Amino acid sequence: ANTGDIKHTFRSLGWEDPLVKELTTHSSVLLCYEHLNGSCVKTPYSPGPRLILYTVFIFGAVLTVFGNLLVMISILHFKQLTVRSVESCWYFGESYCQLHSCFNGSFCYASIYHLCFISLDRYIAVTDPLVYPTKFTVSVSGMCIVFSWLFPIIYTFSLLGTGANAAGLEDLVSALTCVGGCQIAVNQSWVLVNFLLFFIPTLVMIVLYSKIFLIAKQQARKIENLRSKTGRCSNSYQDRVAKRERKAARTLGIAVLAFLVSWLPYFLDSIIDAFLGFITPTYVYEILVWIAYYNSAMNPLIYAFFYPWFRKAIKLIVTGKVLRENSSTVNLFSG
């Protein structure tokens, strides 16, 4: 690989990443594998930005894993709650690149379908609480969970495994194929399908949560009218349930908003790239990807901020009191 070949390849495709353009203006080009033919171009970073990027990414990964572990341990243990970016090169081989890309896509879609079914669960709980236990049974919940995992896995592995995502982009794929690279090209047709698979459940969530908030507002108005007529506070069971469901809906609504803020820029950029010749600079694309990944770290923070019982569960886990006998029966809802 040399400067002239790289320039010619990208210009012949009408596709010039500004970063590649900058690199190819120098007499020599850094490569992922210096002594190997067909190596990818390596993007150089100075020590300062490299340290900052590694710190941000490592912190995000630790926060994501630790935060979600706290959520899972809390739910599983306490009985009351049971119901490639910095280096620019890929050094893990082609097979793992394919596997990584498949699971990456699967996990991303699984997240949104879980949120979609949760919004449906909250909608039924708020709008029809009397029949809710008969509608969202354990078996129904199980089917929702299975679908949320199985459909994304089948879709993503089928799309990337068969190579349908790159149909019509053979020249671009050929130009991008090099030792030390892990880039997945998606054509216009499939990028639209990907966006629809993101947009449709997102639209469902927006509609359901909008209805939930309207209903919550109506309930609050009725309760306030009742209090003004009776001259005393209403502490009936129905009032307490309504208040709890509204709070749960508000918290999950914030989780959905965080999901949108994280993922929408990435999906919009994917569409723009597919129709305008992949014009997004590499570093911008990586930033959008990591913004999307950071969504996985947001939910534990949202739960910790809004739920006192979760903060208490975290305290018991971190201090080691969770290892005590009968700790699973601790009352998390008491002061």
From TrEMBL:
Protein's name in the database: G-protein coupled receptors family 1 profile domain-containing protein
Family: Belongs to the G-protein coupled receptor 1 family.
Taxonomy of the source species: Eukaryota, Metazoa, Chordata, Craniata, Vertebrata
GO annotations of cellular component type: plasma membrane
Coiled coil: none
Single GO molecular function: trace-amine receptor activity
InterPro entries: GPCR_Rhodpsn, GPCR_Rhodpsn_7TM, TAAR, TAAR_fam
Pfam families, sorted: 7tm_1
Keywords assigned: Cell membrane, Disulfide bond, G-protein coupled receptor, Glycoprotein, Membrane, Receptor, Transducer, Transmembrane, Transmembrane helix
Membrane topology per record: Multi-pass membrane protein
Domain G-protein coupled receptors family 1 profile as annotated: residue spans: 66-303
